[in-house]
Amino acid sequence: MDFLTPLLRVLGNLEEVSFVLKQALITPEYLIGEVPTRSGS
Asked: Could you name the domain of life of the organism this protein comes from (predicted)?
């Protein structure tokens, strides 16, 4: 799955795409990371 091309179209530059991908909860291998949960509910 190509994330780069659509993100580049939307965000306009590689710096912004890089920031978004660093914060992503999915890896290049399509593994989803842990989603932070709120405690104290």
From this structure: Eukaryota
In tens, the pLDDT along 1-41 reads: 688 899 999 999 999 999 988 888 777 666 666 666 666 55
DSSP conformation letters of 11-39:
H-SHHHHHHHHHH-SB-TT--B-PPP---
Distance CA 41, CA 39 (A): 6
In which region does residue 31 sit, left (phi positive, over 0), alpha (psi from -120 to 50) or beta (all else)?
beta
Q: Where are the domains of the chain?
A: 1-32
